[in-house]
Design brief:
About 50% of the residues lie in helices and about 20% in strands. It is an alpha/beta fold. It has a single domain (about 5-105), classed as Aldolase class I (TIM Barrel, Alpha-Beta Barrel), CATH 3.20.20.70. Strands 1-2-3-4 form a 4-stranded parallel sheet. Helix 2 (about 30-40) links the parallel strand 1 and strand 2. The longest helix has 14 residues, at about 30-40. The chain is globular. The termini are far apart.
Length: about 110
Amino acid sequence: MPLVTPTEVYKQAMAQRFAIGAFNVNNMEAVQAIAEAAQEERAPVFIQVSQGAIRYAGLAYAAGLVKIAASQVDVPIILHLDHGTDFEQNVMCLRAGFTSLMYDGSKKPFE
């Protein structure tokens, strides 16, 4: 199944009253384990990539691993950037196929 955006998954979760798991990953084995568990449980899932994971694996590999995992299962997988603090990196993630992101402006001035 291709990656999905959270909108429809949120609607389904609210209607059927269930939570959506969200898990940070740093390597291929974690991505595989989460996708396989989601498939086994027939549950949608957020697979989250942090800035640290992007520094470790590179953006193309981080996104690519999750895209490949999503193609191997038939449950919704959302590729999420967790705590993106850099605007340019956020844009790069969206262009790389991320279907969700959380912008973290906590270190920016309030004004």
